[in-house]
């Protein structure tokens, strides 16, 4: 098992894994995803982390560093799209990829890391609390733009 930052060669496998995250998510054409990936690669404030087994991404999350003018100008890190292949769950992989994202945040002297999860994913919420996230400290809101 290899743990590292993902790159363009991992994109196809990453998109396959994302199908397990949300079966209703409408994925774009691979060529469109390649263009978006190039934008991501050009931005050092966005990093995708993964566990790779035999060339296949089996666990992942991404982290975005956001500069901030409060808290002594210490930034915020936002973690999203945490997913582990159903055949690899409960093996500690998600903990390791989240640790990589948290290290990314620490390297940038962030004062906090924010992780969002679907409201109905209660099993995932217990896991996030187990690895150190506080599900009671803030209330998140989102607005879906269609």
Rg estimate, integer Å: 15 Å
Give the overall silhouette.
globular
Order of helices and strands: EHHEEEHEH
The secondary structure category is alpha+beta
**Number of strand segments:** 5
- Count of runs of 4 or more consecutive helical residues: 4
Low-confidence stretches: none
- Helical percentage: 25-40%
Query: What is the CA-CA span between the terminal residues?
Result: 39 Å
**CATH topology label:** Aminopeptidase
Strand order of the largest sheet: 1-2-3-4-5
Main β-sheet description: 5 strands, mixed
Number of domains: 1
CATH class: Alpha Beta
Beta strand %: 15-25%
Query: What is the averaged pLDDT score?
Result: 92
Question: Do you know the CATH architecture?
Answer: 3-Layer(aba) Sandwich
Please name the fourth-level CATH homologous superfamily. Gcn5-related N-acetyltransferase (GNAT)
Features:
146 residues; five-stranded mixed sheet; alpha+beta; 4 helices
